[in-house]
Amino acid sequence: MEVSTQAQLDQRPITRLQYATVLVCFLMNMLDGMDVMIISYAAPAIAKAWSVSSEALGMVFSSGLLGMTCGALFLAPFADTIGRKAMMLLSAAIMGVSIYVTSSAGGVSGLILFRFLSGLGIGSMLASTAALTAEYTPNRTKDFWVSLVIAGYPVGAVLSGLVAADLIPQYGWQTLFQLAGATTLLALPLVQLFLAESLEFYLKSQPAGALDKVNSLLRKLGLEELDRLPARQIQPKGIQARELLKGEYRLSTIQLWTALFLAFATLYFLTSWIPKLASNAGLSIELAIYAGTVFNGGAFFGIVTQGYFSSRFGLKKTIGVFLILTGVLMAVFQIFVGSPLLLLVFGLLGFGVQGGFVGLYAVAARLYPTEFRTTGVGWSIGIGRLGGIIGPAIGGVLIGMGLSMATNFLIYALPTAFAGIMTIYIASKKIS
User: Fold this and answer.
1) How many other CB atoms are there within 10 angstroms of residue 171's CB atom?
2) 388-410 as b/e, with b when 16 or more CB fall inside 10 Å?
C-alpha cells in the first residue's frame, strides 16, 4: 500500500470491510485450531482401540506438524504471487478433504499420511490470515488485531474439545474427523463471498484488472480512488525467502526463528500430550479432554491480553514476560499435582505460552514488507514448527520412559524461558 494510502487508513475509523476481513480470518483460524487439536482429543480413544504406544502417537502428532511446516515454508509463500484470499481457499480445501478422510484410516500409517496432508493446509492458512490482517488494520492497533485473529485458533480448539468430549464416547473418534472435515469445507463459500483480497497485494503485484479492484476496495474503505496504479516494483522470482536473511533483516530473522522454534517445541508438546498425560494420571477420557480444553481456553484470554498489553508496552517486552513467567510456572508444576488448582494451572499455562508465541506472529507481520510479508510470516512459522515437530516426538519418548507429567514440564520450562529472553533482544527497530 502506498504511504499516503496507509496514512489515510491509519487516521480513519475502522470500516465494515476491515471488520469483515478480521472476522473471516478469525473464523478460519478457529477451523485451524479445531483441525490441529482433534488428533490430540482423539488420541486416548485411538490408543485404547488400537493398542497404540506413546512413541507411535508421537509420530502421528509430528507428521501433522511436519505437514504444517511444509505448508508454511513452501505453500504459504505462493500467497505473495496468487493472493492471500486464493491461498486461504486452497488451504481450506486441503484441510477439509484430508481431515474428513482421516476417519477412514485403518492404522497408524494412514493417520500419519492424512495428518501430514491436513498439516499442509493448516500451515499455509495461518500465515495468510496473519498477513492479510496486518495489511488491513491501522498501524496503531495492528498488533492487537493480528493477535486477536490468531486467537481464533484456541477458540476452535476449545469448541472442538467440548464437542469431542461428548461425541467420542458415544460415536467413536471417526465421527469427530468427519464432522470437522465437513465443517471446514462448508467455510469455503464464506471466504469466497465475504473476504476481500489484500489492497497492498493488488497495488504491489498488479494482476489483471488491479486498478478496478483497488478502487472498489478504496470506495468501501472510504478512501480516495486512484487514477492509475503506482509504478510496479518488480521482485525477482524465486529469491524472496533469501531476502529474510539479508541486510537489516538477518539478525532479527535469526532471533525470531530461534524464539519461535523454542516456543513451538513447548506449545506442541503441551497441546499434543496434555490429554494423554492426564489420562495416564488416572483421569477419564472425558476429563482428560477437558484438561486440554481448559489449556486452550486460557490461551484465548492470554492472546487477547497479550495483544492489548503489546499495543501499550511494546511487543518484545510483553511477549518476553509472558514466556518467561510460563517457564517458571512449568518448573514449579510439581507443587500443584493432586491439587484442586490443577485445572487452573493448565489454563494459566495456555494463557502464557500461547499468549506469548502468538505475539511472535505479530512480530513477523511487522518485520517484513508487503513484497514478501507472507513469505516472511510463513517461513517464521515453518522454522518454528520444526521445533513443534521435535517437541511432541521427544515428549513421546520421555513419556514412554515413564517420566511423570511434572518432570516433563520441568524439562520443557527451559526452552520456554529462553524463548522469552530471545524475544526481548530482537534487534529490529520496526518492532516496539
Assistant:
1) 12
2) bbbbbbbbbebbeeebbbbebbb
Contact 84, 128 (CB under 8 A): yes
Given CATH 2.60.40.1120, say whether it is the number of domain 11-424: no
Q: Residue 309 and residue 432: Cα distance in Å, rounded?
A: 12
What's the Cα-to-Cα distance from 172 to each of 3, 43, 55, 57, 207, rounded to whole Å? 54, 11, 22, 18, 47
Identify the pLDDT of residue 312. 82
The set of residues, in sequence order, having a beta carbon less than 8 Å from that of 362 and lying 6+ positions away, is 130, 134, 142, 143, 146, 147, 307, 310, 315
Residue-range domain boundaries for the chain = 11-424
- Residue 369 gets which letter from DSSP? -
Q: Where are the beta strands (DSSP E) in 219-295?
A: none
Burial of 152 (0-12, 13-18, 19+ CB in 10 A): buried
On whether the CB atoms of residues 79 and 127 are closer than 8 A, the answer is: yes
Distances (CA, A) of 9 to 140, 220, 404, 430: 10, 12, 52, 19
Nearest to 17 by CA among 151, 197, 205: 197
Tell me how far apart the terminal alpha carbons of the chain are, to the nearest angstrom. Answer: 22
* Cα distances (Å, whole numbers) of residue 97 to 114, 173, 268: 10, 17, 23
* Cα gap 303→151, rounded to integer Å: 6
Give CA–CA dist 9/22, Å, rounded: 15
Q: What is the DSSP letter of 12?
A: S
Residue 184: per-residue pLDDT: 93
Which is nearest to 152 in space by CA: 120, 119, 130? Answer: 130
Distance between CA 281 and CA 184 in Å, rounded?
33
pLDDT number for residue 233: 60
Distance CA 181, CA 412 (A): 32
pLDDT beneath 50, residues of the chain: 1-3, 236-239
Please tell me the predicted confidence (pLDDT) of residue 1.
45
Question: Reduced to 3 states, what is the DSSP secondary structure of residue 199?
Answer: helix
Contact 156, 300 (CB under 8 A): no
Q: Note the pTM of the prediction, 2 decimals.
A: 0.76
